[in-house]
Design a protein that fits this description.
Length: 228
């Protein structure tokens, strides 16, 4: 894509690091190798924001901090996870990305922190997300939410974050089909499937920053079906 003059924004909604929630002495070495191999790949191709979700936290905050320090080019995002001792956020709550004359705010959230995590405080992700959207709304052109939450919450996220533009969720093996109708005027909701096996690719054409974004994917799919 870059060879063709395109400069994509690459984001990860979370639950990417490990292949299982059962991390133990028998598999921890191979699972960490898997995780760091993926981060090596992200560092090579570029990653503009990685949301911290349930899977990322499975081996503890210390290991996660060491990865953040090892891969400084990859923004680790979490707006609602704080250190219990300091009461401060452990990771950056959001990232602002500039592409030519368009600014994009990316916010990371989760509500799927493992019950065994005693060293952190998890703030209400909906309240936190709404507050950050309000904070960023006048400073950026587009707001993207990366949300790690259980499957049952996914359909309610456009209502929870109604002033966002795009919402990418993890925490489910569901994958959003291009033919799925989206909410008129947004925000547009996408689930990317299991363990990073699929990519959701959004081609966004902006002619007027003040006009609402229109999703034409489902209409294009209907036309293709008629042509076939």
């Amino acid at each position: 894509m870059r060879e063709n003059g395109e400069n994509p924004i690459i984001l990860d909604a979370g639950d990417m690091f490990f292949s299982t929630t059962s991390i133990n002495n028998n598999n921890i070495k191979s699972e960490k190798h898997r995780c760091e191999t993926m981060l090596d790949g992200y560092e090579k191709i570029g990653c503009d924001g990685l949301n911290i979700g349930k899977y990322e936290l499975l081996t503890g905050v210390s290991y996660l901090k060491s990865l953040r320090d090892k891969y400084p080019k990859i923004p680790f995002l979490s707006a609602n996870i704080r250190d219990k001792n300091t009461n401060k956020l452990i990771f950056s709550p959001y990232e602002i990305i500039q592409r030519e004359n368009v600014s994009i705010g990316v916010i990371g959230l989760t509500n799927m922190v493992p019950d065994t995590m005693k060293s952190i405080i998890v703030d209400d992700y909906i309240k936190t997300g709404k507050n950050l959207i309000k904070k960023l709304k006048n400073d950026v052109d587009i707001i993207i939410m990366l949300v790690n939450s259980d499957r049952g919450t996914h359909n309610s996220q456009p209502k929870n974050f109604e002033n966002a533009d795009f919402i990418f969720v993890s925490g489910s093996t569901n994958r959003t089909s291009p033919s799925m109708p989206q909410k008129d005027g947004g925000p547009f909701l996408y689930s990317n499937g299991k363990q990073g096996k699929y990519l959701t690719v959004i081609d966004l054409e902006l002619k007027n920053n003040s006009s609402p974004i229109v999703d034409i994917s489902s209409h294009e799919q209907k036309v293709k079906q008629l042509d076939n």
